[in-house]
Amino acid sequence: MFLCLTFAEKKLILKKNSMNSQQTTDNRQQTSTISRRRDMTSIQKMNTMGFDVVAKHFYEINSLIELDELIKKNIFDDDKFLILGGGSNILFSDEYFDGTIIHSNLKGKTIFDSQQSTDNGQQSSFTTVRCMSGEVWKDFVDFTIKNNLYGLENLVDIPGSVGASPVQNIGAYGVEVKDCIDRVHTIDLSNGSRVTFNNEDCHFAYRDSIFKREENKKYFIVSVDFKLKTKGELKLEYGNIKDYLLKKNIESPTLSELANAIKDIRAEKLPEVGVVGSVGSFFQNPIVEFNLFQRLKETYPDMPSYPNDKGVKIPAGWLIDKAGWKGHKENHVGVWDKQALVLVHYGGGTPKEILDLMKKIQDSVFEKFGIEIKPEVNII
Ligand code: EPU
Question: For ligand 1, what atom is nearest to the CA of residue 326?
């Protein structure tokens, strides 16, 4: 272990690190001190809903060596622990978390040399960028755009951390992060070994992956490798992107013009993170059977719908809007007036208030349409 090494040995490790660019980000993390446990810690700033939740124990991971120490102390043998990134997709059901919160603060980004690959018979050039899990997602996407790398531009301004992005396969404006993830590097919390998942191993699906399910508690995500094109085609098909660009007299946008357009479109519809508490989409868009869809379409000919191989996807935002909830406020919580899929916390409220509102909305949508809407947010 690093702590037992002599100074000469430490110097040798640091020299080796500086010689090998591929390992720079991971190994640089080995130089810091052991994580200190904090008790009865407020994690209000670590959940974008902004509820003042207090955690019994809290550790921040600044290095892999700190993580290793916690594994040796058997912290992860206790069932009641939670790995928390930016807290942008988590809803605590109580103001007290009776367990241990582990927060990744692993930082660093590495751009590797570009390589050639063949995609559907077409030659293309791509670059792998490795990003540590504790980086802020929106800053990372801005970084890739500044470096003229294509792939993540439709995912600008999504709150949360890089480590959380594969967990629920974040998506927006016709792109899902799985389209760009090459590998996910993790530590197995039962024995401290490094385990790398390639794209297929992650079992990505709509807002879902292996990490959201059984592996959630087994692996700590250290870094993610993104495979980004050095020259790519922009995806402009979703929603009103094209109309928005045309209004600005932009017919063939550059990478940053598209990213800025999506930032503007998002800002028009979604509450600003840090100002109004939310978790983005609170509910998943339900997929209904074709028969039910046909019946509803007769009554509601304007109902938006997206058929897929499992049935027909209906936007939950439209259902909630039609059920009359858009802009509704009660106590300290409510339904965002520009996007009914987003439940908001105006400050000073409790998780119970939002859970009560969730239940009322679910019941009313079921009563009106016979459709069950399920939360997208992870309720802890
Ligand atoms: N709609 C309404 N009223 C509303 C909201 C939506 O009628 O209050 C209608 C819209 O007019 C549109 C349809 O519902 O016809 C779909 O709306 P939108 O394009 O805004 O997308 P969404 O399905 O509501 C999804 C993602 C968002 C992502 C947007 C844009 C889910 C659960 N949500 O929302 O993701 O930003 O598409 O790609 O898939 C998030 O995950 O936090 C998130 C915000």
Answer: 8
